[in-house]
Amino acid sequence: MISLPFRRSSRAASIDALYGMIVAQARTIEFYRGYGVPDTVDGRLDMIVLHLVLVLRQLTRAQGALPPPGQQLFDRFCADMDDNFREMGVGDFGVPKRMQKVGEAFYGRAKVYESALADADPAVLEAAVARNVFGAAETPLGARRLAAYMREAADRLAPLAADAVVAAKFDFPDPASIATPAAQETLEQR
Q: 153-182: per-residue pLDDT in tens?
């Protein structure tokens, strides 16, 4: 059988759909208005990285190691970042430097978020989010909310097998429904 050179595999379509889901969630306006995430190129990149880390974390946990679809998802992210830099006018010599910074940011955040999500103390994840997303030494209210959102998202992903994650058979939490931990405690006390 002759294969067509421009035919896309169903796996590539699944990866594109999953990546599109991550980007759409990262662009949810509530993160920028309600949580106070900076609505900048860096702020939007941080939100994509945060969601990508959550998904790749679950793929790794479900398989014991990062499966090929996880690598394909990461490659899709890198291709998207490369395309975005070029659209913003970064030249051919500048793109590799920017991509190196994106890679360093991704791997640094992935390591910190993984460790913080494994820690039962919510302050650890809150501090990591405050530093990485908000650039703050203190923990703003938005960082506490975002950390609670990350825990909720990780909990939703936790029972899923790798195939369900790759097929995007899950929903991220609605960011507007996440209350700050202090507000949640107040509601529970009533």
A: 999 999 999 999 999 999 999 999 998 766
**Environment class of residue 51 by beta-carbon count within 10 Å: exposed (0-12), middle (13-18) or buried (19+)?**
buried
Q: Does the predicted model carry a pTM greater than 0.85?
A: yes
* Separation between Cα atoms, residue 95 and residue 90, nearest integer Å: 6
| Chain segment 31-42, per-residue pLDDT in tens | 999 999 999 999
Q: Is 10 within a domain?
A: no
- What is the number of structural domains in the chain? 1
Tell me the residue ranges of DSSP E strands in the chain.
none
Residues spanned by the domain of 31 = 20-181
Which candidate, 153, 155, 13, places its Cα nearest to that of 73? 13
Residues 6 or more apart whose Cβ sits within 8 Å of residue 156: 170, 171, 172, 173
Q: In angstroms, rounded to a whole number, what is the distance separating the alpha carbons of residues 7 and 143?
A: 43
Confidence category of residue 6, pLDDT binned at 50, 70, 90: low
Tokens 């949580």 label which residue? 35
Beta-carbon neighbour count of residue 177 at 10 Å? 9
